[in-house]
Amino acid sequence: xxxxxxxxxxxxxxxxxxxxxxxxxxxxxxxxxxxxxxxxxxxxxxxxxxxxxxxxxxxxxxxxxxxxxxxxxxxxxxxxxxxxxxxxxxxxxxxxxxxxxxxxxxxxxxxxxxxxxxxxxxxxxxxxxxxxxxxx
Length: 136
Description:
By secondary structure, this protein is an alpha+beta fold.
């Protein structure tokens, strides 16, 4: 029971750290074909926390296209999220995340504004994130 409480505290702290880093992500966004593209590998960040980070970024930057490679316990998950303006300009999270995950032998998809996919080869995460720029 005590261990569970400690794990919850750690997760809450990781969430706060992750959320505080959203400004840094926006600052380091790359301008690509009219989009503000943010790609990053995140270690030990739960998908729900990463999703919250995407929401914070999209509120501040409507033209953001965000793709995170989440590495948790040897598992690889890709999360793609596109702001309202990015979606109206043709960005589609489902298509992006599918292309990115395919590089690692994974698959997935989803809605234009938010999508997830599973990856297989964690060593190819950085290479997979580069695929984002080919899709846009």
